[in-house]
Amino acid sequence: MSQKVLLNAKEVNIILHRLACQLIEKHTDFSNTVLIGLQPRGVFLADRLAKILEEDYKVKNIQLGHLDITFYRDDFRRGEKTLEANTTKLNFLVEDKNIVFIDDVLYTGRSIRAALTAIQSFGRPNEIELLTLIDRRFSRHLPIQPDYRGRQVDVINNEKVKVNWEEHDNEDSVYLIEK
Fold this sequence. Notes:
- This protein has four helices and eight strands; from the N terminus they run βαβαββαβββαβ.
- The chain has helices spanning about 10-25, 40-55, 110-120, 165-170; strands at about 1-5, 35-40, 65, 100-105, 125-135, 150-155, 160-165, 175-179.
- The strands form two sheets. Strands 3-2-4-5-6 form a five-stranded parallel β-sheet. The protein has a three-stranded antiparallel β-sheet with strand order 1-8-7.
- The longest helix has 19 residues, at about 10-25.
């Protein structure tokens, strides 16, 4: 198994600030916008973006949530091992809100489809956008595309994209791993 660095810590930091600026351009004061990180790995990106928006760009009152999509996936009964649900943390209603789903890697689009179904339990949003750190181009199973993307990469089927976060993996980096 070999691996190649796609993004180092400095590049990840630059991309996070660019994504934060793009969110500010579209949502200005975030008064009707909520950020929702998709469990499990999208929450690290969502938390980091919220922190950058609040501390570096002085955006106040960011509404941030975490959404578990485990049992909304269309393949959750196909695996041999028992699934463990993650935590959903939404302390607000999403009725008429502009939602930004945040995930680390967009691959087939099935996770986002599951998130679209799961969020309906919390209300009817006005609009839903998608932000991803990595967009695996040419691998989509569903017609889903990000509104904001950090980096678009071409990955063949025997390769995997692994995103590491400082707070969980002791480094910010993105690797392309050949299986």
